Amino acid sequence: MLTGMATSSPTRQAHANAELSAPAYVVLGMVQLGANSGYEIKQAVEQSIRFFWTISQAQIYPSLELLEQRRLVRGRDASRGRRQRRTYAITRAGERALTEWLGRADPMPFELRDIGLVKLFFADALAPEEALKLLAAVRQRSQERAATLRQIAPEAREAEHEGSAFPLLTLEMGVAFHDAMVEVCERFERRFAQAQ
Amino acid sequence: MLTGMATSSPTRQAHANAELSAPAYVVLGMVQLGANSGYEIKQAVEQSIRFFWTISQAQIYPSLELLEQRRLVRGRDASRGRRQRRTYAITRAGERALTEWLGRADPMPFELRDIGLVKLFFADALAPEEALKLLAAVRQRSQERAATLRQIAPEAREAEHEGSAFPLLTLEMGVAFHDAMVEVCERFERRFAQAQ
DNA sequence: TTCTCCATGTAAGTAGTTACATGATTGG
DNA sequence: CCAATCATGTAACTACTTACATGGAGAA
Questions:
Q1: What is the reported pLDDT for B120?
Q2: Which residue in A86, A106, A82, A87 sits closest to A25, CA to CA?
Q3: Weakly modelled stretches of chain A, pLDDT under 70
Q4: Residue A62, CA: closest nucleotide via C1'?
Q5: Nearest CA distance, B160 vs chain A (angstrom)
Q6: Between chains, do A53 and B117 touch, taking CB under 8 Å as contact?
Q7: Virtual CA dihedral for B142, B148, B152, B157, nearest 10 degrees?
Q8: Is the pTM of this model over 0.85?
Q9: Could you tell me if A123 and A135 are in contact, meaning their C-beta atoms sit under 8 angstroms apart?
């Protein structure tokens, strides 16, 4: 399971050839998909992968700088008048680095951090009505999330016809597992109602 | 105690009545469920909620100290000979604080951070065989996770008969959504195989 | 004019981890 | 006696966020 990793103790980003961090690859990936500026990258993340990955603006700009230093993206000034702006395009080396990372079989931890489920776990401490309320709240949250995702689906389906099949996959993944959570909630809500 | 100065913004935990952090409530919850020592709390987390919440040992001991200061748990020395040990029990005030938190209708962000899905999102950049490998890896990961969870299920079902129904719910939640992810992966793997 | 969007930069702070240090007890 | 487990404490670090600062451009 856990990889032995390399010989040394490589502090991340310690030197020029150190492994890029996951957020840096995310930025690289977004540039590859056509996001030009830091601002656009932030928007692209919010519109597409925010469901399973977030990144703050404060991370994006330093990442772009690093990627440019390594020549994985090429940056150019695109200021209009006095309004500062810098656009980026992926390089050959950048494409190689991205696909190498995508193909690499390293551990992919599934990191979920959900207060909702934590609360449910402890919910035996609650009075039945209160527990039912909590259950309903968790169900609603997933219903809303699934509904939001379904709204974006047409866009993703269009993209599929233009050769981008995987964004639709990740979107359907989100829909599927929120639907699954809703089902489990409903099952328990029924059980619970009967028990009363 | 701590300065802060009444004027400024309330940094978390700045004074005695500041809101507890989520990890502190998790520790409190585990004490309520019968985990006695810091060590046992860590184990309980690993055995029960690690799929949607983790906590490091280094966080637990300071949390216990804080909870004791606030009289939400009562600590007593339980050293055996020279081996230091401190056990904790929840107080009335602690139980109230816990149920108040559980019942509170505050936002419950669903925080997922998954490199696997990120890689899939970008997978159109890969050659078809490579993309299929990635898809299979993500599928396997969920299959393994679901299998592990099913192994723990009998335990949770026993607990259910003893009045703890909710741990089973959260466990079934985990099974359900990993099963859902597996299904989506399989659907796309078939589609993909046909397209070749 | 004023609001919203475009666009970047950065200081300060929060939340959390890893890794190390210490040492007792139990079971084979 | 040796390995595994029990048990706590903490310094150093990483990763990341929030909040603030700055200002142009376009639209109403």
A1: 98
A2: A106
A3: 1-16, 196
A4: C9
A5: 10
A6: yes
A7: 40
A8: yes
A9: yes
